[in-house]
Structure formats: structure tokens, C-alpha cells
Amino acid sequence: MKQEPQINQILSEGFESVADGGVRAFTVDALSKRLAMSKKTIYKFFPTKENLIHSIMHFVLGQINGVFKKVMTEEPNPALQYIKIMEKICKFSGRTPVHKLVELKSLYPQIWKEVESFRLSHQEDFYIILKNAQDQGLAHSDINMKSVAIVYINIVNSTFQPEFFLKNDLPIRDTIHGFVQIVARGIFTEKGMKTVNQYYKDKI
């Protein structure tokens, strides 16, 4: 337990390093200098660079899991749950340049498969959010939310790949944000969109 803050520090700073320079340029030596920590200490927790990168990605996915739990616990409005969760995901996704994500997928395909599996694992969360919105009159009553959740997650998983953004020269954060807005307008009722629009007005 005493080692946990040190491990989290390594993983957090490791993510910043990977996000800035990509996995190809990432080295334990550079990270140790960034942390002002000996390489020996880092290797004590993470025996290889590959193990460290794998752990960094799990750390990031854990952070996103925390976002789901926090928002779904603290935000009572399901329409805003959907918006706030996707905003956080946009922030994480837009943190790393597209060509650096291509590197990750190319050099560590197994890790990328885990990222895709992670996305799919949240299908039930989105179903709960959208069904609750429907039950509260915030989403259209004639929509099968189970189907919507399945289609939504699979569109995100199959379309929003690094190559897609690179080929079409699209910024990740803005593209996902636009997609979220389109989905929201198609699913939520006037009442639901009123709360969403008010949320954005309050942020200005």
C-alpha cells in the first residue's frame, strides 16, 4: 500500500510522456529523468518497457472507468450523464496526436485490442443511461435503447480508429464531440435537449 502512490506517479507521468512523444520515442531513461527517479526504482515495479507501457494503458483505462462511476453517481440527470462522460472521453482521446495512436496500434496490437474490448465493455453503461433518460421523458419513447447502445458502441469501436482520423484529416476531439451532438439530437426529447443546452450555456 505504501508503494501505491509511487506506482501511480510513475504511471501518471508515464502517460504524459507517451501522450507527448508516442510509444516509439518513450524510454524508461527519459521517464526517470522526468520523474527525478532512478531507473532501478521504475524497473522494480515494471521489469520491462513493454510491461510499463501495458501498465500505463491499463492505468488510463482505469481513469476512464473512474469517470463513468463518478458521473453516474454524482450526476442525477441521465442526459447530462451521457454528455459529461463523452466530454471526458473526448478530452482523453484528444490528448494524444493521431499519428502517435497509430504507433500504439502498430507496435502494440495486443494493447489496442484491449482498448477496443474496454470500449465494448461499457455498452451496458450506455444502455442504462439511455434507458433511464427514456424513463424520465428525456429521450424518445419509441426507440429501442438496447439496440441503440449496441450500435453506438460498435460505431465508436469500428469507425473511430486512428487510421480513420489520419486518412480524413480530422481532429479527434472535435470529431467525437460532433458525433455526440448528432446522437444526442436524435435520441433526446425537447426536454432532454433543453437540459443539455443549458449545461453548455452554463459552461460559457
Description:
The structure is a single chain. The protein is mainly alpha-helical. It has one domain (59-203): Tetracycline Repressor, domain 2, CATH 1.10.357.10. The chain is 81% helix and 0% strand. It is built from twelve helices and no strands. It has helices at 4-25, 28-35, 39-45, 49-74, 78-93, 98-107, 109-121, 123-135, 145-159, 162-167, 172-187, 190-203. Helix 5 (78-93) runs antiparallel to helix 11. The termini are far apart. The relative contact order is 0.11.
How many beta-strand runs?
0
Which architecture per CATH? Orthogonal Bundle
Biggest β-sheet strands, sense, barrel: none
Multimerization state = single chain
Structural class: mainly alpha
**Amount of beta strand:** under 5%
Number of helices, where a helix is a run of at least 4 consecutive DSSP H or I residues: 12
CATH topology: Tetracycline Repressor, domain 2
Number of domains: 1
| SSE succession | HHHHHHHHHHHH
CATH class: Mainly Alpha
Helix content: over 70%
Distance between the termini: 41 Å
Compact summary:
The chain has 204 residues and is mainly alpha-helical. The protein contains 12 helices and no strands. It has helices at 4-25, 28-35, 39-45, 49-74, 78-93, 98-107, 109-121, 123-135, 145-159, 162-167, 172-187, 190-203.
Give the helices and strands, then pairings.
Blueprint: H1 4-25, H2 28-35, H3 39-45, H4 49-74, H5 78-93, H6 98-107, H7 109-121, H8 123-135, H9 145-159, H10 162-167, H11 172-187, H12 190-203
Helix pairs in contact: 1-4, 1-6, 4-5, 5-8, 5-11, 6-7, 8-9
